[in-house]
Amino acid sequence: MDCKYIILVGDGMGDYPLDELGGKTPLEVARTPNMDRLMLKGRVGMAQTVPEGMEPGSDVANMSLLGYDPSVYHTGRAPLEAASMGIHLAPLDVAFRCNLVTLENDGTGIYRMLDYSAGHITTEEARQLIAALQKVVASGPLHLYPGVSYRHLLVWPGGREDLATTPPHDISGEPIAAYRKAYLSEPVLLEFIEQAAGILVDHPVNRKRVAEGKRPANAVWLWGQGKAPSMPSLKEKAGLTGAMISAVDLLKGLGVYAGLDPIAVPGATGYLDTNYAGKVDAALKSLETGQYVYVHIEAPDEASHEGSLAKKIEAIEAFDKNVVGPIVEGARAFSKVNLLVVTDHLTPICKRTHVADPVPFLFVEDLNHAAIQSGTADTFCERTAEAAGWRLSSGVELFAHFVGLDSKKS
């Protein structure tokens, strides 16, 4: 009997206990009846998705959950996004993530990172801004490519990949001077950054945003650089074909390198207003021909970076109601289904960025035929996963267990 494999990822869903929640986490207090019911069918545990010494980015954590050891295959975040965007990187090309951000002068000449996403600028507005910035790179070595919302890409042929750049969501509210030093030794990057700021500040899109009380995209921020990685496909590793469902280029790029179909879902935004139903439909349809689907929901992570507890709880509840519930129902159409519900990394509200702590997961083997345990369903959260005592040393080990592989060979 052929098995279908479904991984549902609530990005950044995990957190720390909060005083304002009576010592509970957002995942613990959110209304998640679908995940809680699955607790009666499956097993919970904790997995270390970020290898020791590596940055706890979504690139590292999701690569691990896909079954690839980041210490072996990870070269940077931006090359993965390039793959999603159909951008071929030559061997010496270095790709950078190019965020549209909002910087704020505090009145003393000190600039701070006010918003890593420029108020979650729309893709339509962002594309107008990126089009205006093309004149900056027209006669030089750099190449600029538009992406989704605030997420864009810069490619520097023959460039440096060893710059000490910093993700903008790691420095929310902080002065940028110390982090900007990474670009001072590279005139080609510094010139692009400075010329881009001059164009963005007076652009009609930003003038309109300011007039509407929205944050302007008044600067660019370069980070996550690297060269193209070399990875075997999941078919080569595990005999699996399937699809990647995500709004963000990072995950779709990981899917490309893993040999998965990076399905574009209309209305997928990577935020609270994403097209949940479209993602679910695409995932279930992909399983009609493939064996494996990876469904990634970005909203909990975005809310965490904003420091919004209310939005994080809303995002977790939407994940449970609009993704987990319909997926479980739709999976009834298949004879055998293994289901994994997991968060890639923790993004604590108190830190507003990622941490490398172990993450909770919920694994149900043979979803449609698994015996229902007696008793009352407990809450799927960090506390119950920790208490279960099942600890896995890596996302690679979790993936191997999920699909029935030897983790040492994966």
TrEMBL record:
Gene Ontology process terms (BP): glycolytic process
Domain Metalloenzyme: 4-382
Keywords tagged on the record: Glycolysis, Isomerase, Kinase, Transferase
Reaction(s) this enzyme catalyzes, per UniProt: (2R)-2-phosphoglycerate = (2R)-3-phosphoglycerate
A matching Pfam family: Metalloenzyme
SUPFAM superfamilies tied to this protein: Alkaline phosphatase-like (SSF53649)
Pathway(s) of this molecule: Carbohydrate degradation
Molecular-function GO term, any one: kinase activity
Keyword DNA damage: no
Protein family (similarity comment): Belongs to the BPG-independent phosphoglycerate mutase family. A-PGAM subfamily.
Task of the protein: Catalyzes the interconversion of 2-phosphoglycerate and 3-phosphoglycerate.
Protein name: Homoserine kinase
